[in-house]
Specification:
The complex is a heterodimer of chains A (511) and B (400).
Chain A (H helix, E strand, L loop, with lengths): L9 H16 L4 E2 L2 H4 L16 E3 L4 H14 L3 E4 L16 E4 L6 E5 L4 E4 L5 H9 L3 E2 L11 H6 L7 H4 L6 E7 L5 E5 L31 E8 L1 E2 L3 E9 L4 H14 L4 E6 H8 L3 H7 L6 E9 L2 H18 L2 E2 L2 H7 L8 H4 L2 H8 L4 E7 L4 H15 L18 E7 L4 E8 L6 H20 L16 H4 L5 H13 L20
Parallel strand pairs in A: 2-4, 3-4
Antiparallel strand pairs in A: 1-2, 5-6, 6-10, 7-11, 8-9, 8-10, 12-14, 12-15, 13-14, 13-17, 16-18, 17-18
Helix pairs in contact in A: 1-3, 7-10, 8-9, 14-15
Chain B lengths: L15 H6 L24 H6 L6 H12 L7 H8 L6 H10 L3 H14 L6 H13 L29 E4 L2 H5 L4 H13 L4 E2 L10 H6 L2 H16 L5 E4 L2 H8 L11 E4 H10 L11 E5 L13 H9 L3 E3 L18 H4 L1 H17 L4 E4 L2 H10 L5 E4 H9 L1
Parallel strand pairs in B: 1-2, 1-3, 3-4, 5-6, 5-7, 7-8
Classes of the chains: A alpha+beta (511), B alpha/beta (400).
Chain lengths: 511, 400
Amino acid sequence: MATKQVDLTVKEAYTELLGKLRKIVGDEWATDDPVILIGYSRDQSLETAHNPNLVVLPESTEQVVKVIKTCREYGAPVIAWSTGGNTGGGCIPQRGGVTCDMRRMDKVLDLDVENMAVRIQPAATFGKVYVEAEKVGLRNAVPSAPASVSMLANYLDKGVFQVSNKYGVGTDSILGLVMVLPDGEILRTGCLHQDNYGPVCVEGPGPDISGIFHSSMGTLGICTEMVAQLYPLPEYEEVMPAQFDEEDLEGVSEFLRQVAREDCSFETILFQDGYLALGLTPNQDGAETLRPQMPRQSALVYYGGETEEEMEIRREQLDAVLERTGTELSPDMMLELLKELIPWKRVFKIIQVTPRVERLSGCFELFWFNIPMDQAPDFSRQFMKLAKKNFADTNPESAERPYPYEETTFYLQPLEFGRSGMLEMDAYPNQGEPEGIKRGLAMARDVIPFICEAGGHFDRPYGGEQSGFGWVQTPMLGTYFDLLKAVKGTLDPLNMMNPGRLGITADAAGL
Amino acid sequence: MSELTKNPFDPLLQVQKDAYRCGKCMLCKYIDHEEITDTEFMTLCPSGARYKYEAYFASGRQEIARGLLEGRLEYNDTLRHVLFTCTECGGCQVICSEQGNKNPLKTIVALRERAFRDELAPLPEHETLIKSIENYDNPWQQPRARRDAWMKKLGLPDARKQKVDTLYYVGCTMAYDPKLQNIARTTAEILKAAGVNFGVLGKDELCCGSTLLRMGDYDAYEKKAKTNIEALNSLGVERIITSCSGCNSVLREEYEDFGGLEPEVMHSLELVAELIESGHIKLKKPVKAKVTYHDPCHLGRYTGVYDAPREILEAIPGVELVEMPRNRANAFCCGAGAGVRTAFPEFAGWVAGERVREAESTGAEMLVTACPFCEQNLGEACGPGMRLADILELVRESMG
């Protein structure tokens, strides 16, 4: 289908397009009003705010099909927006276009108790699915994100959860997708490839096409439905904190790896004090009081089971790991605080980025990548060196410490029974003032090349042209990037779906 | 980044830090996730629930504040709609303050104040109320002389002429709305029966100014608040009780900005709960009803009164209290507040309809509350299967 060849200015074309979109979704659910548009201009990343030209709120897959086909007539960019909680500028329409706000599609369509699966729409939040699943003794993965974010988008974006040690990342839990492609055709993958198929087929049929859409950030179409795995909700659960000095990165990596490999925990994860103090206290003052009382590094292990006996067996395994690795438990004070993390639902409140971002400066700069566990100490040391360089307000006596080094932290999480690890490095520049932007961009310029050169891998190549990772990493990928461009060029020859992401420009895609 | 506003008196400068620190977590859209029992009723923000665009939630309004500060946004009719469809229920405030010490409600108040100063407000519908307060000391265009019509034949003492412990501050809506005057009368009868030494101000009671504050006319509100503080402090009473949740929150909390009131301020329900507990009010007659309680925003979230109404309901023989999925700090607004019912009656009706639907989901046959605005708005949304009542009406009935 060709784009519209008309002599319209951009403004006139969008006005005409708005009229057509309103016919699809109803007058109320599409607009070009700047007061409405500005709500879609920013997230918690360092990306510069930018308004879309239009916003449209479809209520069904059929309407999404029509919206995309109509936008295609005009060559207008389409940016899918599920619940707006992206941390990396993924939904900021840097080149304008039509933001497709999916919030009218927020249903849990089906909960298959026997087969432990859930069928959801894009704006069904983690919290909503959790509540529904909990009623039948199941649960979804709980991410390091607010309960208010889209489960579908987070899973597609390889979200890391408090069960990733055991069950993997978000994409590992996807059983099927309904994708509306850039030409408006509907593609059904996995268990959704035909209506009467049960939630059992993760891949295929044949080669797994659905993998193309994982981490594609809306560049290859809009996902309107997902079937995802659920997990048993443990009857018994406990948390065990172990403590480590700042320099003992080898010790903590080995401890995490052994716990993961023993399969005696639902999750194990390392937090630094700056991160954990913010999560465990109701306000910034509380965090600042608590932090000096905490170990610099805490490895938290969640364990439990269907019975008390099962939980005890896990605890014995953990005690053996503690002894083998010479690891000390944290003071009782930490255990008392961490009991707040139980039950699982509490994780929504505590282990999530929001309190840190909002209490500090409103902007979150995260560097998220997969690493071999044995390289974690080197990566972490280098990150802290760069954090000191860029966020070096280190003098605790100084009243003015807008960017204290201690608040620039990382966390480390073993995946797949310790076979690999996820290291997230977090900094909190202030997007609202020039110094914050300067420091944030300087940090990005330092960290991204270091990671890529050291063999780190961005699974989520977030960001746009200003601070994005994709722009650095993907062109380094040789044939992989060539094929990625070819896929993009084939599915989206007009480069209309969330353009400017994944390091693919119109030129780079050969368009 | 655009240059920030140059006007040093811009009310938005007071909330700039909050607007810039909004991390778009989107939690302000929903009730506390730990408290969700029914996903059908998990939305917290009335305007967001109805209009759905991001701008209608607190997170979007923070971005609007930021846009105005940076000069990225100009005033238009949509902005008026976005600003004034907020009921100022404070739901976002409860959730957001848990997350990051922020105060989105203050941002909304600042946006309205700025709109008022820049003549984007008042809305025409609000202008009538504001002028009425200026001319008649009530928002309902009623003469001062009729303010005491509700208390005819009750023989209530004048608090300025007779030494009393307690002032019953009735409020404009209870005093003038013929459908609600009986609640004021019931309150007075209960207090008398319990032996409370109280008086009223009759025709000389002044509007508390809550309407002015919520509609953005901050200067007029400040004037009204200061006048009231002086007048009420001069009475020498120990406490002031209100029937109206709006009056309660303004007298109790907002007047603190100007030095506050010397007497203790409490809602009538709090006093009645104490009187039941102390045995001064005896509830004898069973009131057979399955009821659910709607927490008025200005009584619950604004002043933290959640237990007293429930204690009263549990003390009434025959009453079975069932909670709505959204209750206490998670309560969904009735839709009337902050001038919404006046300016956007259709939207206010939609919100009330949602709340009544939630009440119906509990199996209750009666929806009880304790605020004249909630009673006006919810009353119109109740169908034949749901009776609306003020808690004190049930108390009166049970006293026999």
